[in-house]
Batch of 3 targets.
Target 1
Amino acid sequence: MGWWENWVVPRITEVACGSRELRPWRERTCAGLHGRVLELGFGSGHNTGLYPAAVTSVSAVEPSDVGWELSAQRRARSKIPIERTGLDGQALTSADAAFDSALSTFTLCTIPDAVAALREVRRVLVPGGTIHFLEHGLAPDDGVARWQRRLEPAQRAFSGGCHLTRDIPDLLAAAGFEVLDLAEQYLPGPKAARPWSYGYLGRAVAAGSAPR
């Protein structure tokens, strides 16, 4: 990665994804996490402090050293142990069935092969383990979607590969997950921000498995 992606993008993400308005959405996403949790794209740790008491540990996949450094104070305040495990969500270093739950917030937009990463998450979850997700992606409104397609090349160049047009439920299905519950709507913010703010919040389990 170049200088922009290494040093600037993590700081932009820290601000863009850390707004107070998003906190209730993050709380809803974290609800129900338990046991050993894999967090895909930990970033600067905006979910720390929101993990339920049933969570015993968090293993954080975070490729950016700057992002990890930005999370230092939040990690230090966490009552739940957090360790960094691996740099690439597409090739997790953990063993099969190593985690009870998984968490992904504003991460699937940027991973080059999101389906490969989700298949890895499915591999490392115990049978019936669920992935909790809060992501932005393709809007259902034709006018907004047209703007997303127009803006996506610049968005990817400016924001470390972030896509605007990914259909999150479709990605989960392609990776072998079944969505258990799903809320879709525009995230808080001005109407002009809608190409960046169509949100998907929910849980999914490996298809054919009963959730734990």
Target 2
Amino acid sequence: MSEFYVLWLQSGGCGGCSMSLLNAQSPDLFSLFTQAGIKLLWHPSLSERSTVEVSDLFSDILEGRQHLHALCLEGSVMRGPAGTGRFHILAGTGRPMMHWLRELSAVADYTLAMGSCAAFGGITAAGDNPADACGLQYNGSVAGGLLDETWHSPGGLPVINVAGCPTHPDWVTETLIQLAMGDLDQAALDKLNRPRSYTDHLVHHGCSRNEYYEYKASAEVPSDQGCMMENMGCLGTQAQADCNIRPWNGGGSCLRGGYACINCTAPGFEEPDHPFTVTPKIAGIPIGLPTDMPKAWFVALASLSKAATPERLRENAVADHIVVPPKRQAGDKHG
């Protein structure tokens, strides 16, 4: 198997996507890279190259002595102040990171935004955005960031937005392996150029609270076990990701940990205009309805579901532990 060369850079972010990546399991990250023929040329936190060696590596890439298959950016592009990019000078080079990104993306076969900051601006671009932070090819939900909306890599694809905050290790490794195998094309990306391998799902799929959702048995405070959509701000029925199908570390997800989904794979998730743990409503109806569900259907379904809610779910939904266990039906010989 020929080697697939990857360069990973970090800009305006927290490093959380790299921390998540290190939690890759079965196999671990480095075993997986070895098996897939992926060679990490440099990562600012995982590599030992000196500043001089990294500068030489960049020169080798730009001058064609070192082929670069995939350029990965973690964290937003910091364009400030006044478009100079000098809020982020790449250490030891004297040049803004955004200049390196423009040059390296022009020669890399593929360019990937690792995490929602690199994809859309994310947390770093929130508020007044004094850093003038943006994504590689998006500024929030608007196409066009550091690179313009029509930009395509030498490999023929736009920036691949492996969005998430943080992004799941499998989303990263799966996408890189698909590229290394020549098995990822435009059809494998959604409308925001995110890999469909995980965005063709909803966070709602596989949620451990789905029985409560079905009967609209809702949590009222953070420790409750019920569905968090109605009152607690959960966007799992709208968020495109498979977090509850392949959870972190073999068993973890925001919802399994008792936290509402905030739709972190989408642009603008960082500024919802209301507290993350509150569901905005009009006339008692949540504004953000489940994907593909007309309001009239939701109202009718919710009314019917609430009327049919078993007492077990009604009581357990507003408790922090199971207070009413399942009971077998009278005459059931198998319970």
Target 3
Amino acid sequence: MYGDLKDKVALVTGGGRDIGRAIACKLAESGASVAVNYRSSKKEAEATVATIVERGGQAVAIQADVSRSDDVERLVAETASALGNPIHILVNNAGGLIARKKVLEMDEAFWDEVMAVNLKSVFLVTKATLPYMADGGAIVNLSSLAARDGGGGGSIAYAASKGGVLTMTRGLAKELSPRSIRVNSVSPGLINTTFHDTFTPDAVRETVAAKTAVGREGEAADVANAVVFLASEASAYINGESVEINGGLYFI
């Protein structure tokens, strides 16, 4: 991977499994010390940390609900305490569909929950991290193909929240430019993860995968590779952008 992250400190939200785990491991492989945040996946987060340490890296697992401001403040402070201050890289990966519901099936509480886990979390963690972040740092947000095409059935709330992540990414790129902090996003399509194991029928996955230009689902490593690129100096002239990771399923 990109070998310019030595002595960097990275925080990855939702880093215990699937895409978050792959990102944390790739960042560590490139030399960064990594805080692996989790909400409830303690076993998976500790396994991610163990993998990084076994490979010669440095990592720590920190529990926090990133939709709660008090938890977020503690998460960032513990990251800096455990791995060092400043923080150089933030990856806002935490998120989820929660459930597939059409508009008439949603209540206000469901809508608020989806927005909190996918969009509010990006606001809270970014705001809390900025006082600790080095000038010239990098923020990478996880959006989704759903932000572009409205998502699959019953995912309007999720798609809307991820659209908000795209817009916030562009706004932050402008706002943080005086500090040379770059802000980009990645927008995965159909990726082989627990997300789709839970919410997407196998037949639908097979049909969608067959429509991609490469003829397969993506893997978590495909997303992690792009995230590490955006976190590194290899992408020094890329800012406010979204890298679409969907195998050619959707062209903008």
